[in-house]
Design goal:
Blueprint lengths: L1 H10 L6 H9 L16 H22 L4 H33 L10 H28 L6 H9 L9 E2 L5 E2 L2 H19 L31
Antiparallel strand pairs: 1-2
Helix pairs in contact: 2-3, 4-5
């Protein structure tokens, strides 16, 4: 539930707590229609899918209520086309790499052609998922005007606080403040751990700073 809630809130501006997803799952009674995209899910999973879909539609309806209809079409068309264009180019690069390396499967007594078809299908399926995910992610982060975007942001949930748990499984209070303190401490520790260069950077072919007259790569930089 934690992973699902994080994905929903990162992809869509819902601010949905985990408790609401659990409540929707517990209230699920209807079975998905056979042959639909939800076929194979349990009644609880189907209820969660419907609950999240309804919330996303409500958020989208709220967003477009502040938009200029004509300008919104242009913005959404650009969002869709840019996602397809960028990810399709990455897909073509990936297919070139796959075609170059798939011959190595022959060393494992496998037919490279069959392996290529199977891998290509998986890569294309992943491409379609990535395109849909990026469109859904960006469609809520674009607007026909700055004013419309600001009005939409004012109506969104401000934050979602996860309940903190101890190492022994017990819940603790004040999770938000403790979490922010942990993030600050981690960032400070990361900055402190960064190496600090005490002198100018010496290239491999530059004279060694020790004064031997040799190139750095043949002297003090030999073990670097």
């Amino acid at each position: 539930m934690r992973g699902l809630a994080d994905w929903v809130n990162l992809t869509f501006p819902l601010g949905m707590p985990e408790a609401e997803i659990v409540k929707a799952a517990n209230s699920g009674k209807d079975e998905p229609v056979s042959g639909s995209i939800f076929d194979g899910l349990s009644s609880a999973q189907f209820a969660v899918c419907q609950f999240i879909s309804d919330k996303v539609r409500e958020s989208y309806e709220l967003k477009i209520s502040f938009e200029n209809p004509q300008q919104l079409k242009t913005v959404e068309r650009y969002t869709v086309l840019s996602a397809i264009d960028r990810l399709w180019q990455e897909h073509l690069y990936g297919m070139d790499s796959l075609r170059t390396s798939i011959g190595l499967r022959a060393y494992g007594q496998r037919d490279p052609l069959i392996e290529y078809k199977a891998e290509a299908f998986k890569v294309f399926d992943e491409l379609m998922v990535n395109i849909k995910t990026e469109i859904c992610h960006n469609i809520f982060r674009s607007a026909s005007s700055l004013m419309a975007f600001e009005q939409f942001l004012r109506k969104l949930p401000q934050k979602t606080v996860h309940q903190e748990t101890t190492a022994f499984g017990g819940a603790t209070s004040g999770g938000e403040s403790k979490g922010s303190e942990m993030v600050s401490e981690a960032m400070a520790a990361t900055e402190k751990a960064k190496p600090v260069r005490s002198g100018p950077k010496v290239g491999r072919n530059d004279p060694c700073p020790c004064g031997s007259g040799k190139k750095f790569k043949h002297c003090c930089g030999k073990n670097g």
